[in-house]
Amino acid sequence: MARIPVSQAPALLPKFNLHVRANSQPGSDTYIYDAIHTDIGIAASTSDVCVKFFEPSTLQAKGQLKYHSDQITEIKARSNSLLSASKDGQIAIWDLRQAMSAAPALTFKTKDPVLSFDMSIDNAMLVSGSALDKDCCAKINLWDPRAAAQPIAVFENSHSEDVTQIRCHPSTSHQFLSGSSDGLLCTFDASQTDEDEALLYVANTGASISGCGYFGPNAQYIYAQSDMETLQLWTNEATQLADFGDVRDLAESGVPIDYIIGCKYDSQTERLYLAAGTNEGDIHLLHVGAGSFEHIQALQSGHSGVVRGLNWDLGQGWAVSGAEDGRVSWWATTEPAQPPSPLVQAVSPTASSQKDKSASSRASNGNTRRFAPY
């Protein structure tokens, strides 16, 4: 495959500055699977089977939730709630208005390890994807949160390997997307409980899917990343738009990348962004075009190991990352407004970051250029 065209476009995003970083559990070898922003602060799922909470601006520890008995595979935030899934076969919903010692408000139990899940935009449907069971069956379970005792439907014929990704449609409550180690992307209409009738489209990516999701003004497109660090773009009707191949080849164009962290679509700018990392802990942000990339910026000094999770909000100007070094890092597009806790390590802005901030501010206020040729 030909080299992927890459240009530099630092003005596409305001500059993220590293404000503060902290170890999730000082003195231990605990590492972080994911880090997200919730109503009560930063939540990080860790290798010691906990969800730990931190104050955003200082990363001072606030407490933890402990319920699962095996690896936590995914966490998500909803209003006043945190949702967690685990290889113990359970999904838990926590009421964040309750004490940290409280049990989950609601649990959903399966016989198979849950690898991914999502909840519909109206919170009326929970969908989970499971690992291949002893009968060589990979299940997608559909739940009504009002009746959590058992699934309302089970789809078990669409995939032949682990269901690694579930993503609900961002605006249509009864549609969702699944991705699997078998390389298939499947789009479903959950208003139909019969699997054959519910399955709308199937795309074969040819690679084991590790991440997927909707993007575009009307969520009319799908991105798919693989555990071979490839990236593809599709329509939601299974027509391929772009195949970038192995994004590690960007190193030939001067952007060192060892793995994909994930993709994010920003509805305000109508752009799809790729976050990729290095084994040394650097994070590279790129804009994804129809057949090229624009390198925007590198987030450095936050980590010294593989970055597992990056959660960011362009409108509010913050990002949080978690990595195998056990560290949580808080980034923002403004300079630190208050001194951090002495329990964590502050990062002082440099003169160059001040300059980048000024340039980025001008860009975010005055740059109306669109680059979304999907």
How would you describe this structure to a colleague?
This protein is mainly beta and 374 residues long. The protein has a single domain (6-366), classed as YVTN repeat-like/Quinoprotein amine dehydrogenase (Methylamine Dehydrogenase, Chain H, 7 Propeller), CATH 2.130.10.10. It has two helices and 30 strands. The protein has a five-stranded mixed beta sheet, with no helix packed on it. It has a five-stranded antiparallel beta sheet with strand order 27-28-29-2-30, with no helix packed on it. Strands 3-4-5-6 form a four-stranded antiparallel beta sheet, with no helix packed on it. A hairpin with a 3-residue loop joins strand 20 and strand 21 (230-235). The model is unreliable at 337-346 and 348-374 (pLDDT under 50).
From the alpha carbons, calculate the radius of gyration and give it in angstroms: 20 Å
Uncertain regions: pLDDT < 50 for 5+ in a row?
Answer: 337-346, 348-374
Structural class: mainly beta
Shape-level CATH architecture: 7 Propeller
CATH superfamily: YVTN repeat-like/Quinoprotein amine dehydrogenase
Mean of all residue-level pLDDT scores: 89
Helices, by number, come to: 2
Q: Please report which band the strand proportion falls in: under 5%, 5-15%, 15-25%, 25-35%, 35-45% or over 45%.
A: over 45%
